[in-house]
Amino acid sequence: MSDHVDDGERATGGELPETVVEEAERLSRLAREAVDDDERAAYERERDALVAERGFEARVREDDTGDTLVLYPAEWVDDGTVARDRVEDTDRAVERSLSGPGDPERWDEVAEHNRAVAERVRSAHGETHGETAAALATFMSNHYAKRIEAATGDELREFREEYFPRNAWPTERQRRRLDRSVELVFDAVERPLPGGKDGETERGE
Questions:
Q1: What's the structural domain count of the chain?
Q2: Are residues 94 and 137 part of one domain?
């Protein structure tokens, strides 16, 4: 069984498995990034359907500290508003910040997951793509404390334009195949590539 499935069996402290929360966070971040209203609405519908299957509803709270995804048990909500007299155990709700990096307290777990993804790419596609995948794994772990599949388009752009050329010591072959390497990483975690495919570098294996 894969790491991704195993992690899904672990709950967040309430009733939602960690992978459900992470996917809801990922979809919320993609919705925030979307420039097209239809695309934004599609991400939000997918997120809402995902948590509804578990009896939860999603809200994004906006305040001075930034945006926060909040997942409430559906029975707390009355006509779109949380009814405080229905809230018996606040630990059942889950909150995730959408305005900054992931949870640094889970760094070891995140780093192990990201390294495993990079090794899958290396095993399937060779050293060139594997080395770039390892660099992306390190970047997401150290700079954002997030799983690779939770990366946003802006974070991948930062990796491509700033981190990769300055910190990864890439070979010329890695540079030419950078975009393809990133695509293969997202293929490995079975997620669509945020922002689509750039197509600026060589696409061969």
A1: 2
A2: no
- Residue 205: inside a domain: no
Name beta bridge partners: 59. Answer: 70
Taking the C-alpha atoms of residue 96 and residue 103, their distance in angstroms, rounded to an integer, is 9
Burial 33-71 (b: 16+ CB within 10 A, else e): ebeeeeeeeebbeebbebbeebebbbbeeeeeeebbbeb
Which helix (H) or strand (E) element contains residue 66?
strand 66-73
**Structural domain includes residue 133:** yes
Q: Identify the domain containing residue 167 by its residue range.
A: 106-188
For the chain, the straight-line distance linking the first and the last C-alpha, in angstroms and rounded, comes to 27
- 3-class secondary-structure state, position 120: helix
Q: DSSP assignment, residue 67?
A: E
User: What are the tens digits of pLDDT across the range 92-126?
Assistant: 778 887 766 555 557 788 889 999 999 999 999 99
Q: Please give the residue that has the higher pLDDT: either 149 or 121.
A: 121
